[in-house]
Design a protein that fits this description.
The chain has about 130 residues and is mostly helical. The protein has one domain. Helix content is about 55%, strand content about 10%. It is built from five helices and two strands, in the order ββααααα. Strands 1-2 form a two-stranded antiparallel ribbon. Strand 1 and strand 2 form a beta hairpin. The longest helix has 22 residues.
């Protein structure tokens, strides 16, 4: 069974993070995909980057998702040093199965393209002479 909450120890103290429920996860998909696309590389190559390598809108997504993950009675204060950011990211990935979310993104993208194709005006060839 997958864990739905995990307590991690950061430089500012312990914090408990929770997985998002099914309803909340869909509401966080855009932020989750922003993090997946951008910070996924950072996560794989963590030692090659520093916090200032990340654009402000990506940090905004990080903080929204982190706030949505902090368990009741727990608190997370920023700014966080880079090792703490990586610990939070690892926990968010583990709790919320980002790889599954990437699959959802592919499905959503295909459905969006299909919907756009159906809505595109059907043109008939012109017979002007």
């Amino acid at each position: 069974m997958d864990s739905i909450r995990r307590t991690i120890v950061l430089s500012t103290g312990p914090v408990t993070l929770c997985a998002w429920g099914a309803g909340a996860a869909d509401g966080h998909l855009i932020d989750l995909f922003t993090l997946t696309a951008t910070l996924g590389e950072l996560r794989r190559e963590a030692l090659a980057y520093e916090a200032d390598a990340v654009e402000p809108q990506v940090w905004a997504a990080f903080w929204r998702l982190t706030a949505a993950s902090v368990a009741r009675g727990s608190a997370l204060a920023g700014p966080l040093p880079w090792p703490d950011v990586l610990a939070v990211l690892d926990t968010l990935w583990d709790l919320n199965d980002v790889e599954e979310a990437e699959g959802k993104l592919g499905g959503l993208t295909r459905r969006l393209e299909q919907a756009r194709a159906r809505q595109a005006p059907q043109t008939t060839p012109s017979t002007n002479r």
